[in-house]
């Protein structure tokens, strides 16, 4: 491995301004996060606690292993819209009984969740992540006491995504803490294991329209629970026990080392690099030991490609430089590199600053044929990545096109958690199934 020899000088013109601009954006993001964490507001939260009930993040904390991290996805979805920040649903990845799981927790203090398109998309996205990365899905379900529009919400898309989990033999566990209405009712109905809190849990479904109208009859489900819990804490204990009895094992290879070397350069510099973007400077602050083997360094200036490790996992990096026109040589290098990553079963990281630096169409086409896990930063949905995150930028932070806006200083941690998650499934490149067409690299 070649150690990147790079260091950002704080005296570089524009460095203080770029850093301060990012800190200002992070302040806005933190305010949005606080709004999401407040749920339906102080009055609704107080009333919920007074009933002896837990909030969704409290339930998640009790479900997870002690001191286990939780990677929350799209936490401020819906920010800047007519819908509540966070959409009344918490989704993310956490470790339960040493098993990485996707977790969905609805917030009963937020009304109208079942009719909220951002909530539906968050649930669907979580189910797709569980399916693609072969991680058990744990649903922590309770609807608001009054959920306007819940009975008329379609929900078919959620049912389809949840059904795919069964097709892939990915187990699903659902804990019902109270009433489950509208789309939320699909979560226990389509789960393999259902735990209900005695005296509180009930599922209200909408099986057919009423008198040909858009309304529907709302009726209690008679589906029995697999286990009855005495209270919420007992329900979470039973859920942990259920995950333990899955005897779940990862299908992908483990990291090359459990004690990876940290980067040699200060992660604080990433605050300025959101603007003063240089792919090598970024990689020097997120890769293990700041080590990076560049691929075809003498070919093309607009695309950087090479190999490294991140938290012990091998990764191939493709980075598009901002403001540099891409040539045919850049495209050829990118396509060749994508092919090699597939031939060696190596996950890919796609990195750019923003929409000013993008891969050319041949590389995008190659990514469409690639089957190794793809992680993306600041790229949108290019190549259908398993996970895609962005750094804070000016304007709204509604997360419509990614899995979350993250603090640049957390980039290495977030990507490491994602690499661990994708290795729950088999990591296999398209080279094994002939998905690449002959001559692709010559385009």
UniProtKB/TrEMBL annotation:
Domain of life, per lineage: Bacteria
Occurrences of domain CoA carboxyltransferase N-terminal (ranges): 22-205
Gene3D superfamilies with a match to the protein in the record: 2-enoyl-CoA Hydratase, Chain A, domain 1
The protein, known as: Acetyl-CoA carboxylase carboxyltransferase subunit
């Amino acid at each position: 491995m070649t150690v990147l020899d790079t260091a950002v000088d704080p005296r570089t013109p524009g460095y203080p301004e770029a850093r301060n601009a990012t800190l200002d954006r992070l302040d806005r993001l933190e305010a949005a996060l606080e709004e999401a964490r407040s749920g339906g507001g102080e009055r609704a939260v107080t009333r919920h606690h007074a009933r002896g009930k837990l909030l969704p993040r409290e339930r998640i904390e009790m479900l997870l292993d002690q001191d286990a991290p939780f990677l929350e996805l799209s936490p401020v979805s819906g920010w800047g819209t007519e819908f509540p920040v966070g959409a009344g649903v918490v989704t993310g990845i956490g470790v339960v009984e040493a098993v990485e799981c996707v977790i969905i927790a609805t917030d009963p203090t937020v009304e109208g969740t079942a009719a909220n398109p951002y909530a539906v998309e968050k649930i669907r996205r979580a189910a797709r992540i569980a399916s693609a990365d072969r991680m058990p899905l744990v649903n922590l379900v309770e609807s608001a006491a009054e959920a306007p529009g819940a009975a008329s919400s379609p929900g078919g898309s959620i049912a389809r995504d949840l059904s795919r989990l069964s097709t892939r033999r990915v187990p699903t566990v659902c804990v019902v803490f109270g009433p489950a209405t509208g789309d939320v009712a699909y979560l226990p109905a389509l789960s393999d294991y259902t735990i209900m809190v005695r005296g509180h849990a009930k599922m209200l479904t909408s099986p057919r329209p009423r008198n040909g109208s858009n309304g529907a009859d709302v009726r209690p489900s008679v589906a029995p629970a697999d286990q009855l819990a005495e209270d919420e804490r007992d329900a979470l204990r039973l859920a942990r026990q259920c995950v333990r009895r899955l005897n779940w094992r990862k299908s992908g290879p483990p990291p090359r080392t459990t004690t990876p070397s940290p980067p040699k350069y200060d992660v604080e510099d990433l605050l300025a690099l959101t603007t003063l973007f240089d792919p090598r400077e970024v990689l020097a602050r997120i890769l293990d030991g700041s080590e990076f083997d560049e691929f075809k360094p003498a070919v093309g200036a607009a695309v950087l490609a090479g190999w490294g490790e991140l938290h012990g996992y091998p990764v191939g990096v493709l980075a598009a430089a901002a403001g540099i026109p891409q040539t045919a040589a850049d495209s050829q290098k990118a396509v060749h590199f994508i092919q090699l990553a597939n031939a060696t079963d190596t996950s890919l990281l796609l990195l750019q600053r923003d929409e000013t630096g993008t891969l050319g169409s041949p590389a995008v086409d190659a990514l469409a044929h690639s089957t190794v896990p793809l992680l993306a930063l600041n790229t949108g949905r290019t190549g259908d990545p398993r996970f895609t995150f962005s750094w804070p930028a000016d304007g709204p932070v509604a997360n419509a096109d990614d899995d979350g806006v993250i603090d640049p200083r957390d980039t290495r941690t977030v990507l490491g958690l994602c690499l661990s998650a994708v290795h729950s499934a088999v990591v296999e490149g398209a080279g094994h199934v002939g998905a690449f067409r002959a001559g692709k690299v010559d385009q």
